[in-house]
Amino acid sequence: MQETAASSDRTSAHNGSSAVRLSVVIPAYNESTRLPAFLDSVLAWCGRHEPSFEVIVVDDGSSDGTVTVARQRDVRVISHERNAGKGAAVRTGMLAARGELRLFADADGATAMEELPSLLAADADIAIGSREGRDKRVDASALRRFLGRWFNRAVRMGAIKGIRDTQCGFKLFRPAAHGLFEIAQEDGFAFDVELLLLAQNKGLSIKEVFVNWTEMPGSKVSLMRDGIKMLKAVRRIKKRWKTGAYESAMMRVTPSNELAGSVDS
Asked: At 200, which CATH number?
C-alpha cells in the first residue's frame, strides 16, 4: 500500500487550527473516466463550505489512469497494490483519515456533495444516505430498484433491523463510529452490512437520511452476481457475530452518549 505526499488540508482562518474537521474518502477502481468530475465537485463544495478538510482517494489496484487523474488534484492518494475490494478500500481510507467527521462517497458521484448537510443535520454516530425516500429523486433502472429492494429486505430479515437501504454509497461517521473500521473484516460490497450490524449491536445511533441519487453509466457491479456474493457475505457476518468473533474488538467502540465531547454540525 502506497500513499502520495499530496494532501488537501485546509486550515480555518477563523480559529487557526490545523485540525481536519471533514475527511471525504473515495474508493476507486478503474474510475479514470468518472472520477475527475466528481473529485472536482467534491473539492469545490468543500472549498465553499468546509474550513478544514481532506479528500482521500483510495485506488484499489486500478489498471487504468485512476491514480494519474487523482494526483492531478489536491488530494491524498493511497494505492492498493492489487484489487482488494470496495470494503477494503473504504477501510483503508477511513483508517488513514484524520477528520472528526468522515464521509465515504462512491467515485461515480451518484450522490452529490450537496446532500451532505442533511447527513450532518441528522446528528447521529452514523448517518447513512438512503434511496428509499418518496420525496427524493432516484434515477435507476427498474431491475436495479427491484433487486436492491429485494436484497435490503433479505438483510432486514436476517441481520439489520429498521434500515431500508444499507447499500447507498454515501455514509457519514462521527468519532464514536471510527473504531468500527478496526473491527470490520469484509472486503467486498457487504462491508456496509457488517458495519451497520456492529454499530447496532454496540448501541451506536444510526439515522437513515433520504438523498437524491442517480444511477451513473459505467457501473462495474453485476446485480445478480454481486447480489449473491453479498447474501453469502451476510451469512458469514452473522456467523462471526454468533460465534463471538467480534466480541473482544467491540470493547474499543464507545457510543457517543458515553463520550466526553462531540462534533458540532
From this structure: 3.90.550.10
Task: Flag whether 264 is in a domain.
Answer: no
C-alpha pair distances (Å), 74 with each of 56, 86, 90: 10, 23, 19
In a domain, 262, yes or no: no
**Domain-embedded: residue 196:** yes
Question: What residues contact 35, with CB distance under 8 A and at least 6 apart?
Answer: 26, 28, 57, 66, 69, 70, 107
| pTM of full prediction above 0.90 | no
**DSSP string over 39-61:** HHHHHHHHHHH-SSEEEEEEEES
- C-beta separation of 210 from 135 below 8 A: yes
The vertex-66 CA angle with 63 and 71, nearest 5°, equals 130
Per-residue pLDDT of the chain (265 residues; tens, 9 = 90+): 766 534 443 333 223 357 899 999 999 999 999 999 999 999 999 999 999 999 999 999 999 999 999 999 999 999 999 999 999 999 999 999 999 999 999 999 999 999 999 999 999 999 999 987 655 555 555 655 655 565 556 555 556 778 888 889 999 999 999 999 999 999 988 899 899 989 998 999 999 999 998 887 666 666 667 677 777 877 888 888 888 888 877 776 777 766 544 444 4
C-alpha cell, 37: 468530475
Q: Is residue 259 part of a domain?
A: no
Q: Which residues of 34-45 are buried (b: 16+ CB within 10 A; e: fewer)?
A: bbbebbeebbeb
Where in the sequence is the domain holding 107, given as residue range(s)?
Answer: 2-254
- Chain-centre distance for alpha carbon 224: 22
Cα of 239 vs its chain's centroid, Å: 24
